[in-house]
Predict the structure of Adenosylcobinamide amidohydrolase.
Amino acid sequence: MTTPFLHVQNNQTNQTYENNPTGRTDFNDQLDRGERFDLKEQSDPNQPLVRSDPSGQGVYHAKIWPGLKIYRKERHILLEAPGPMESIGSAIYGGGMSSVERYANIYVDRFYRCDDPVQDIRNLLVGWGYPEQGTAGLLTAVQLKHAAVVEEQGPDFGVLCCATAGVSNAARAGVQRTTFPASWTPGTINILLVVDGRMTPAAMVNAVITATEAKAAALGDLGVRDAENGLTATGTTTDAVMLGVSQRAEWPLLHAYAGTATDLGGAIGRLVYDAVRESLAAAGGAPK
């Protein structure tokens, strides 16, 4: 039995379930109501959720932004937008604040020698034919088949989250624990967020905060512990997050906030929470 590389979480809001106890709702109706839509229910149950292109590589077509695609390549997951995105995040290559069109989440084994990860990523991108400009690269030791993708469409935005998650080096922030001089190792929880909408720079920072809080909530609810002190983990020692925003003029609302009290922040939190939990469950990394 072949396991699809993308495990798509398909929980729906209580409102959706109450309005339609079968759990099957029309995508356009959900779009009009600003509800979360069930990706799995929109596909033919007799067909794999992630189909293959002629080259044999999986491709996922996002609903929230036509043209946004996620590809499963031999050694990386490529998230490619149909246009430039304003981006902020902690990717070792192309991180910070920049304009990007694609994110590459690249698999390396846990024995990877990280003497010069920036150059290693650059070499890989060149070998794969991706332009160095407009591309952000992350490294992960999590098997890519355990990636999770979730989407949610709101009235003034669309959000997609793709996460790869492992907790072998789970850690709790805010306590005394073993630390090391500045160095770099492959990301254990890598979160790729895309917002089709308009956001201020401050709201983008706010969104990263919300995503981090949601990741910590997922680990806490799963009972993930920092092995060094036994306390509830808030992340791992090597996490990374990237947020890309379309800033398309078609969206009339400019979001100035993305905290948990906002519609946008609420969606971001739910999707990150679900994606982290789903990826850990797929990898068998969540505590029983």
